[in-house]
């Protein structure tokens, strides 16, 4: 690449030159034609491969090792199913729909993911964050449709159940709207909104899978997602707090839900239902105690404690025989019917109202599902296909939306339970779906007397893990201030503004932090370690010697339009010479010297028309740019290099590039930085810093020798 000077006694042997391989790229038209031809061909093996790729269960189920896998799958499926039932009922409070729809959602999501998922351990179903985001949209649209959010929507008679397409005619609920040609009550309208939102969410996810847009998730950094989840957990806690106290206040619509809700709670604190308050205190105590015992003795306990199921069963019996609803006015779940409601096409008329709301749901649902899939795949030694995971979770939303379900996602807690109880394949999801099916067919009506405050307790206690992350903030701050600030901003925006805006603020702020870091990267002057070719930061390491009359500068960031000015300023500051200012000083000095010479000539009667040249005496003659930490440059970065070479050349300083990667070299070659046909490449570009330093020394020595010879 470069012409290496002759090796002297003091010069170590130089590395051999590197020669780039010549790669012949096929024309884009031929590449496109070949891909289209490959994509349009149809054959039996291709059809079989497509179907098995779309339904991975066809590949692994025939290879199922019955004796080895069945016990772990059955146990984990039963345990997750037992946990799933009370959570499915509880999270409907967040989603703003009736409990039966939570059971439907859990049932269909498990069946579909069993057929289409590539992860062996992920549990897909109702997730608190998804339920919260769905509930906010549902409550907003229900309110805009003219329904009263403050009314208790449960039927007073267990024999009265308003079907999803029926008119709600229970006491106090005479208002209805026309939807798809039929009159629709509050409950019907709520699930219609949720189903339309879920359908669009699934469509977006499938489109992301088809167009290979999974890269979107890379913009959701771990600190941002953690902060977002923690802020959403605080919002969930706030929304559920009214049920703990038995207060009947509507969910706030708009921004500042947390602040406004707490103000409403304290304004109505005198209306607290003592029965609900006492029940909540007892249930939270039992649930927390069960969780603590589970964590403390997890090595001894082979299966998780079914604390939620015990609490639900006990609270339901106490409420039923104590007649807490009729005697103390405690809010209960109401009638949960058995069986299934006939499927129905989601209302396309509602989709325009929720089209934007479905975007964050789609992204968050996909991000959590793929991240959990990859995490447990690495832990258990297998691989997953992210694009198929996106397709699977999309179908887990599209298909169930026809069966009165709402948005689903992978859930961390239930996935961890599956992993810890011996799950081997997605057969466990099938077992969990069968447990939910039994409840749907036989046991659902028994939950009529279950108090809503008990469901709120289950939701709040499940948030312990997310809320505990507040204790990790000092450790985050010590490890990385940037990550800690991103976490705090995402958490605060989500909790104090809204969940959707919190997600947007978190993404934008984390990207701004990255841009800021590239605009203000670490820069350093390098020195040489004793008797070796290693150059490092003189401010970070001891016993380094800067090469005489050569400045070695390192810039640790990509060089592009946003940070080119920062690059120039940091370089000028580091080397102590700004070429424009030095050139200006020289011109002023020349002008002043010329004036003095002219005055002296006039005084002596002489005429001096010659130019006076003032030579600059600098501490260095060459700047070597160590580009090893520059991953790429754009046209603005290349123009910056051109500017440096030109401006420093005017004051007698050479600029050399060292340790450039092939991406940077290609960009410079395309922009003819090395001249026509790369004629100056050997004198500007070097493989290592040491080679560039040696070249600079020998070139300068040769130039001085020629200058002395010409002077003689």
Automatic annotation (TrEMBL):
One Pfam family hit: STAS
Transmembrane parts of this sequence: 69-91, 188-207, 354-371, 391-413, 425-443, 487-512
Alphabetized UniProt keyword annotations: Membrane, Transmembrane, Transmembrane helix
GO molecular function terms attached to this record: secondary active sulfate transmembrane transporter activity
Topological category with respect to the lipid bilayer: Multi-pass membrane protein
Principal location class: membrane
GO CC annotation: membrane
Residues of the STAS domain: 540-696
Keyword Transmembrane helix (UniProt): yes
Protein name per UniProt: Solute carrier family 26 member 1
